[in-house]
Amino acid sequence: MKQRVITAVVLLALLAVVVWQIYTPLFIIVIAFLSAVAANEIMKCAKVSNKFIMILGTAVGAIIPFTSSENIMQPWISAEKWSHFISIVPPLAFAVIVIIAFFLAMIFDYEHTKFEDVAVSIVASIAVPYGFSMFGMLRDMYDYKAQLGVYLIFYGLITALGTDTGAQLGGMALGKHKMAPHISPKKTKEGAVCGVCASFVLNVAAMLLYNKFAYVPLGKHMVATLLIAEPFISFLSMMGDLSASVLKRNFDVKDFGKIFPGHGGVMDRFDSSLFSIPLTYCVVEIFNNAMK
Questions:
Q1: Which of 147, 172, 268, 276 lies at a CB distance of 3.0 to 4.6 Å from 160, suitable for a disulfide?
Q2: In 3D, which of 278, 292, 209 has the Cα closest to residue 68?
Q3: DSSP E strands: which ranges in 111-181?
Q4: Taking 90 as the threshold, does the pLDDT of residue 52 lie above it?
Q5: pLDDT for res 2
Q6: What are phi and psi of 180, to 5 degrees?
Q7: CA distance 261 to 226
């Protein structure tokens, strides 16, 4: 418990620094680091032995978040220059090149590299990092340095963390009926309901605080959209947690990693957020298109 508390304090301090520097490249550097570690964790848990795939996959995991926005490197590099740089290789072309490289690595080391290794590595080094890149995409979804983008990041994080904490506490107090006994025995249906309710209440409070102090408050249509979507995103964030649990059972491991003593790896901490953050982006993107 002491180790978990110390780690939690360190993580909160790191979060404070990231928030303080959210409009500098330090923000995306931290996200890229987490993305690379997450990609590496999944491949290690899957026992991918091909060193080329491991190294390339980890590197790709670090690179993808830097392509999330043309403003992501300001003020170090101007938006115009960074936009030109990241457009040299379009995202789809980049993904295709990486996938082909993985398959070539399988061919050259076919005795020790299975198709399953390639499939897992594609998910780990492309799909997961694009989930992390949504942090940058949300930040710059509106004008650069617009408060709304930062609020949306916190909306997604509050949904995931509020659901997880509420479900855990609610399950301890009221839990009787198992939600997924063969995947995560401690999760209960009562806890799940408590988690959804807790995240909704926390987001309502955060929304009220934001609208009170922000110089660009949320419009009533945006408020309605986010509140309607919140329970669905909350529920799906639990599915992200369960998806990670399924992976760990398939890999026969307790935690994805040990980078956070007492808390596990990056994937253990961000499994729910990798569902809630991209879903937040999707909801807001659909809302923006509908309002045009």
A1: 276
A2: 278
A3: 178-180
A4: yes
A5: 65
A6: -145, 75
A7: 34
